[in-house]
Structures are given as C-alpha cells and as structure tokens.
Amino acid sequence: MDERVEANRAGWNLIAPRRSGVAVERLRAGEIVLADFEVRLAGDVAGRRVVQLACSYGDEVLSWAILGARATGVDLSDVAVAKAIARAAEAGIEADFRQADMLHPPDDLVDLDLIYLSWGAICWVPDLDALAAMVAARLRPGGALLLCDHHPAWEALSVRAEDRLAVVGDYFGRGRPATGQDDAKLPEGARGEPDAPRFTTFVWPVSDVVMALIRAGLHLDEFFEAPEPALYAGLGEAASALPAYYVVKAVLPVSA
Prior knowledge:
Blueprint: H1 3-15, H2 24-28, H3 36-42, E1 49-53, H4 59-66, E2 70-75, H5 78-91, E3 96-99, E4 112-118, H6 128-138, E5 139-150, H7 152-156, E6 157-161, E7 164-167, H8 206-215, E8 219-226, E9 245-251
Parallel strand pairs: 1-2, 1-4, 2-3, 4-5
Antiparallel strand pairs: 5-9, 6-7, 8-9
C-alpha cells in the first residue's frame, strides 16, 4: 500500500470511533439519508448491485439497501468498516462491507449497476484517470457512476468572517498533495482535535473529473453544481452565491 494511503488509513482509524451517523433506530424504521436528487438520478435500485466507495460508517450503503439494492460498502479504514458492520446488524439491514482502497476494490465487485461516491470522496484520489478506468471496468454495460461531492471551490476557500473568505487551497492543485488543510475542511472527528491526523488529500477541478470519466468511455448523463450555505457557515448571505457541491451521473454505454 502506498505510504500516503497507509498514513490516511491510520488517520481514519484514529477518528472513526468519534464519527457518528444517524440514529440506528431511524434506519431500522426505513428512513434513508440520501438526498431526493440522488434517489431520482439512481433510479429504481431494487435488486441492483450498488457499491459505495469510501463508505465510512455505512449509512448511505444501508440507505441503498433499504431501497432494495444489493448494497456493498468499501472503505479504507478497517475501524470504519467494523463500525458499519455493527450498525447494519443493529439496524437489521442486510448489506456487505469490505476494507480496501477505493482505487483497488475487491476483485469480485464487478458487473455493477451503480457505483456511488459521495460527500468527500474525490479529494482522496491521487489519480483521476485510474479511478475512471476502474469504474468503467467494474460497471456492467448500462451501469452508472453517481458522484455527489464537495465542490473543489469549497475545498479552496474558507470563511474568516461575514463577507470575508480566505484562499486555503489551490483549485488547480490536481495531483499535487494538499497536506495543510484548513481545520474546517477536516473530516468529522478531526476538526478542532489536538491529535488531528495529517491527511494527504487532493484538489481536482470539476472539469478534470468530468473529462477523466469521458476519457474512460463513460457518457455524461447529468451534471450540475449547487450552493449549500451551511458549508460556508458564518459567511452570511453571500454563502448562497458560491458553489458548495457538484453532482455527476455518467453511464457506461451498451455496445451496439
């Protein structure tokens, strides 16, 4: 395993016990944590093979399972995977969880209907073309990638006061590691903690993400950007004028 990946895994193992999802009782009652647009873009997943990469403690995987999918979650952190397995058992929801680097998921995860990445996944990817090629190789013809993630503009900007932002990252950083993250950008469980790990992340322009998928042979089916004022807490009304997340659905075409 790459030294940076191993260091990130150790960091995630440290903070995983501090991270919490929704109350298990809510999942047991059939509540899902997916946004309405995610459910709409995914379509009917009943009986479909859905894999989430970088699944953390598994609430989204369990949500896909609630919707009827044969759902699997993959995460770098063995501690997070153990927590996801325990939450699934407590909720009484059937789902599969595996420990692996997202660029190298288990070999049997192939012929997939949907690969899902969400809310803090792309920043851990050192090579977009490698990710896109892996996705294309794992999807069945007609299968799709659904990516819903923090906007790289949010990765590069941080609130300092109302109507005042600071540039804390390079929007065009691409494959250059970003090791000095602003505290507000750290994962839950690391923010404000004196022992916060020094994660290695990457900032990729949205255009690079889209073009990597196209080069891998996927067809763009949906793409949009949107604000989320909560991600710019303290900025004031201007928070609604900034991109906070973006969504891409890309489909592996069926051969003629």
